[in-house]
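Morning. Coffee machine broken again, so started the prediction first thing and wrote up yesterday's gels while waiting. Chain of 215 residues, entered below exactly as on the submission form.
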Amino acid sequence: MGGISVLRKREIPMAIIFIISMIFVVQYYVKGVEPLDTLTNTLGNWAIIFSALAMGIGLINLIIIHGRKVMDRKGEWYFDAWLILIMLVTFGLGAIGGTEDPYYSFIFNNVYQALSPTLFSFAYLYMCTIAVQAFRVMNWDAGLLMLAGVLTMIANIPMVQVQTGLFVELKNWIFAVPARGVFTAFRISLALGFVLIGIRVILGVERGYLGVEEA
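Came back before lunch.
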């Protein structure tokens, strides 16, 4: 029975992932095969359905977790209560009246969009603190980084842009040559990493998504 339990937990999901992955790989390189295109479109639609179900399960999980805090009155439970209320009201308005519902639009425009700039403002402050730490000249690399950052900031000053184009040209060169080269290398490394992870998942080497294996 133990072997059957392990088989159900590991081998069957791995086999499903391998088969579906190979179907999409073959469809990507073999064009014009109508049954294969239809099959991949169907699998893509099922992926959307499962994604929606996963979001629904996540919504239920959030309600359960925050609902327990409200019921136990632990910590700042009233924030959790407001979160549950707003989440349920927004979900209900969107499910009944759609995104064009005036109350749904009011919540989206005056709550969600108002919170988004606030979140980004905190991110900008964090980036400023990181920039200050990066501008500390500890070695030659940090000195070049600080020089490029200072030149870029000076070039973004409107008065400097009006008076002289030297700093603007330097900024454009920094973005076009060194920065572009670094970002290109980063994107290539990222793409190779995704390919490697995909191969490991297809071959069954990467099993973290299946949970912790029992000894």
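The CA atoms of residues 117 and 180 lie 28 Å apart. Going to sketch it on the whiteboard this afternoon.
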